[in-house]
Amino acid sequence: MKTPTLAAVLALAASVAVTAQTIDPARYRIVDLSHGYGPGTLYWPTSTEKFALKQEASGPTPGGWFYAANSLSTPEHGGTHLDAPRHFSEKGRTTEQIPLDQLVAPAVVIDVTKEAAADRNYRLTRDAVLAFEKAHGRIARGSAILLRTGWSRHWPNAVAYLGDDTPGDASKLSFPSYGEDAARLLVEDRGVAALGIDTASIDYGRSTDFQVHRIAAARNVPGFENLTNLDQLPQRGALVVALPMKIEGGSGGPLRAIALVPR
Ligand SMILES: [Zn+2]
């Protein structure tokens, strides 16, 4: 048998690489899942800092061209943002350590807008997840769960969105989210990649012990909080791309999340 030449091997590899290109952007609708950052961005009431954009330059240069540049500062946990596992676990992964396949994952959207509209302290139950699976199939390992409560319609009205806007006091918050038994099922049994939500937290507003954060962090499952536009996603079939600022040692960070929805 004749040994193939290096040139022949390289030519074959190149042709395989070309035919393996299967992502055609024209076949997807791209949905923005992030709120903008600005003076209206909502933060936890106990946060002493907010998003700040400081103008460093904006105007004509001596050379005659226009030049603009700003500096920014922000808490990690405000606006649309990532919760790294480190947020609630001393040994949990920090922002830059989260594997990319937990941030780019098939989306499963669980719609609880009716339940949340009837009870702003609604928590997703284990039975509700099992009922979802009965209707839509078992949730596959590695899925990113996006819990749709409809809450982003309140953004950026702090009282409506968070339930209270008393500075420095988080004891009167009220909004829907995941419940502890649903989180255990999703994180520990189904092995989901991430827990996302269109409210301020993967624990409900009344929570004082942050059980869902702790369950997720213990398994190195990140959270995506303050998402928006979940009403534009199908319950299955979209791909979520949730890439935070790659903060070394971070417990979270600002998040630009999008979804690719097959047309
Ligand atoms: Zn957070």
How would you explain this protein's 3D organization?
With 263 residues, this protein is of the alpha/beta class. It is globular and about 65 Å long. Helix content is 21%, strand content 26%. Strand 9, helix 6 (211-218) and strand 10 form a beta-alpha-beta unit. The model has no long low-confidence stretch (mean pLDDT 94). It has helices spanning 6-19, 113-118, 126-136, 158-162, 180-189, 211-218, and strands at residues 28-32, 52-60, 66-73, 81-83, 104-111, 123-124, 144-148, 177-178, 194-197, 223-225, 236-244, 252-262. The chain has six helices and twelve strands. It has a seven-stranded mixed β-barrel with strand order 4-10-9-7-5-11-12. Strands 2-3 form a two-stranded antiparallel sheet. It binds zinc ion (ZN). Residues 77, 81, 83, 225, 252 line the site of zinc ion.
